[in-house]
């Protein structure tokens, strides 16, 4: 089955709202883990803590070390004192950012905004594609520090609870600022679990992909081929490329932690599945019919119905297998989405 025959509705499933996880678990690694055999569709139930039992010496885990910015700013419009919300999407240059603003209609070029009693100010410069605004910020000191004190984590729209600890929407290995959303499959790992995995002889390769809010953008076209994927910046170091290439060449498995790590290495690989140090923007859209060049297995969360992410996991394990596994997860009351449980497709 390829994309030409696929409709968005082919990836629909009925999810009870109470299964959407609203809060992270006390212990990251105590989430549940659904094991899915991509060839047979067989399913078994585990806990995430035991993931190392299913990894072999010589395997390589690919992790996305992007860091989520506390990119949600609540402030006021200087002229009127009306409440405004600004969500940072992408740094264009210096202190100019592409942002999503609410209420949008009122934010014309020239509008002045203020946050934190004036600790951070902004001016709307321009309206760009999809109604996003280019905004220039002014402040004293270091922008990241100002943002850290004033900004909130940009939680996905389906999470309605307030996050008590900012770090819980951050992986323990987050390093490079730039994401508007967390690479959530990585949220299950603790430092202790990563150390145990390394001690077993499993390599950890870190790549960077700054996750955009397009991750949550619904597919609005009936034919999936007409959906326009958002662009995201990625970077692969020489060290990570070598590690992944050696794993492939020695016949071991490359297992991505999250769809973002998967999209990074699949974007950068040559036709033989080899990588070299590089950076760039990717709009790769992976759906059934896609032939994976590098990836052998995937650790991922449970995704939204009809989303590009369900299409990606279906490309790896087959649509019928994935939808059947999701049905079992619903029956077993697994927790879904960002703060939910995990799945290991191998």
Structurally, how many domains make up the residues? 2
- Overall pLDDT level: 95
Output the structural class.
Answer: alpha/beta
Broad CATH class of the largest domain: Alpha Beta
Question: Would you kindly provide a written description of the structure presented here, covering whatever features stand out?
Answer:
Helix 5 (308-317) packs across helix 6 (319-331). A hairpin with a 2-residue loop joins strand 6 (83-93) and strand 7 (96-102). A 9-stranded mixed sheet has the order 2-1-17-16-14-3-12-13-15. Strands 5-6-7-10-9-8 form a 6-stranded antiparallel beta barrel. It has a two-stranded parallel ribbon with strand order 4-11. With 346 residues, the protein is an alpha/beta fold. The protein is 18% helix and 27% strand. It folds into 2 domains: 3-68 and 166-345, QueA-like (3-Layer(aba) Sandwich); 72-150, Beta Barrel (Thrombin, subunit H), CATH 2.40.10.
Structure described in brief:
By secondary structure, the chain is α/β, with parallel strands linked by helices.
Q: Descriptors for this entry?
A:
6 helices, 346 residues, 2 domains, 9-stranded mixed beta sheet, QueA-like, 18% helix, Thrombin, subunit H
């Amino acid at each position: 089955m390829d994309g030409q025959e696929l409709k968005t509705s082919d990836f629909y499933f009925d999810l009870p709202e109470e299964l959407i996880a609203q809060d992270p678990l006390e212990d990251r690694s105590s989430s549940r883990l659904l094991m899915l055999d991509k060839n047979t569709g067989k399913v078994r139930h585990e806990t995430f803590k035991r993931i190392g039992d299913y990894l072999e010496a010589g395997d390589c885990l690919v992790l996305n070390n992007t860091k989520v910015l506390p990119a949600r700013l609540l402030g006021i419009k200087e002229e009127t004192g009306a409440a405004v919300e600004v969500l940072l999407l992408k740094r264009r240059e210096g202190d100019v950012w592409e942002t999503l603003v609410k209420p949008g209609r009122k934010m014309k070029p020239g509008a002045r905004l203020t946050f934190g009693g004036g600790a951070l100010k902004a001016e709307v410069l321009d309206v760009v594609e999809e109604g996003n605004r280019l905004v220039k910020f002014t402040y004293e000191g270091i922008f990241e520090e100002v943002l850290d004190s004033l900004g909130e984590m940009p939680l996905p729209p389906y999470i309605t609870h307030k996050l008590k600890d900012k770090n819980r929407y951050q992986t323990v290995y987050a390093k490079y600022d730039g994401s508007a959303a967390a690479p959530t499959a990585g949220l299950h790992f603790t430092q202790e679990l990563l150390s145990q995995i390394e001690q077993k002889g499993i390599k950890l390769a870190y790549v960077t992909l700054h996750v955009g809010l397009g991750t949550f953008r619904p597919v609005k076209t009936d034919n999936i081929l007409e959906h326009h994927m958002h662009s995201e910046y990625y970077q692969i170091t020489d060290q990570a490329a070598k590690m992944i290439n050696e794993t492939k060449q020695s016949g071991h498995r490359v297992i991505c932690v999250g769809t973002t790590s998967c999209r990074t290495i699949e974007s950068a690989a040559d036709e033989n599945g080899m990588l070299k140090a590089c950076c760039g923007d990717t709009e790769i859209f992976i759906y059934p019919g896609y032939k994976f060049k590098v990836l052998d297995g995937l650790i991922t969360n449970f995704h939204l119905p009809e989303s590009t992410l369900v299409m990606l996991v279906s490309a790896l394990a087959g649509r019928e297998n994935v939808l059947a596994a999701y049905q079992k997860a619903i029956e077993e009351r697994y927790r879904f989405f960002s703060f939910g449980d995990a799945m290991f497709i191998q």
